[in-house]
Amino acid sequence: MPRAAHVPRDLSFVPFAGSRAIADGQLTPAMLRGPAWRRLLPDVYVHADAFDADDHRMWCDAVALRLPAGGAIAGFSAAYLHGVNLLPRNAPVTVILPGAARLRPHPRISASHDALSPDDVTRFGELRLTTGTRTAFDLGRKLPRAEALVAVDALLHRRATRLAALTDYLLAHQGWPGIVQLRTMLDLAEPLSESPMETRLRLLLLDAGLPRPVAQHEVRAKSGRLLGRVDLAYPHWRIAIEYEGDHHRERAAFRRDVTRLNTLRTAGWLVLRFTATDVLRTPSQTTHQVAAAIRERRGSTC
Fold it and tell me: Would you tell me how many other CB atoms lie within 10 Å of the CB of residue 191?
């Protein structure tokens, strides 16, 4: 029976440079060609048991080994490392390269050239990545409008950056491409938004000319007792707007929602509930329902 290949402990879990492992005497070229190792990028390998094609962190670790001096992980990949996962499936690792630096093209790498100051870069373990502020700055000006607001909201909510810091950064970088869009993003941004679909629902209402709703509003009884917290609200008219994601379909969550919403209705609140279909496929019908609720409540004595 053939003996199992020896696996050095420090090469068991994360990607590594094959040439370095050979130079250090940990592996031989013949060993690297064996079934125990998977080649990710030129001269970058990972142990077969640690390979996961959907593990974006693994790909970030791999790309970092090929990153030229002064480069950094950026965009969606930096947001992911900051705790905000907006990645499309099989998304490449996004990197920013300085000056004339080059990186061999690869399907799992999306590289662009841009200016990076030392203050724009931070570290996540051994990885160089753009700061939360620079990441929000880039995504907020480069992505399509709705996706840009989703990214800015999410990074603010995660506290990867602050609205004041992002505003100061924008003022110091006037004239950069996309800066006009980013300026509008800062006017629309909401750090309290808890999910991408909540952001999209809020933007839908604003684009329809409706008043800006209050995010994550706490509804309290006259005694001060908390009755519930709602995604979006018009407190003056006692209108609550809820986005119903898949997590609400779990039995325990569903029961809690029923109890909470019944309590709100008893307290005189009108509760409107919307799904992804309402927001993405029938937006006009959704905004019409909210507008009708506002007209109804404006004409009432609530």
Answer: 17
Nearest to 232 by CA among 242, 224, 220: 242
Count H helices and E strands in the chain, helices first: 12, 12
Nearest to residue 270, comparing CAs of 250, 247, 299, 293?
293
Contact 130, 72 (CB under 8 A): yes
Whether 255 has a pLDDT exceeding 80, the answer reads no
Per-residue pLDDT averaged across 125-130, rounded? Answer: 96
What span, in angstroms and rounded, lies between the C-alpha atoms of 61 and 81?
11
End-to-end CA distance of the chain: 81
Is the pLDDT at 249 greater than 80, yes or no?
A: no
Tell me how far apart the alpha carbons of residues 279 and 195 are, in angstroms, rounded to a whole number: 13
Alpha-helical (H) ranges within the chain are 18-23, 29-32, 56-64, 75-81, 132-142, 145-157, 163-171, 179-188, 196-207, 251-266, 276-280, 283-298
Three-state SS at 189: coil
Alpha helices in 173-250 (DSSP H): 179-188, 196-207
Q: Mean of the per-residue pLDDT values for the chain? A: 93
Read off φ and ψ for residue 283, nearest 5 degrees: -65, -35
Is the pLDDT at 271 greater than 60? The verdict is yes
Nearest-angstrom CA–CA distance, 121 and 95 = 12
Q: Is the pTM of this model over 0.70?
A: yes
Max Cα-Cα span within the chain: 85
Task: Please report where in the chains the tokens 């402990």 appear, as a residue.
Answer: 9
Calculate mean pLDDT across residues 230-248.
89
| pLDDT confidence bin for 301, thresholds 50/70/90 | low
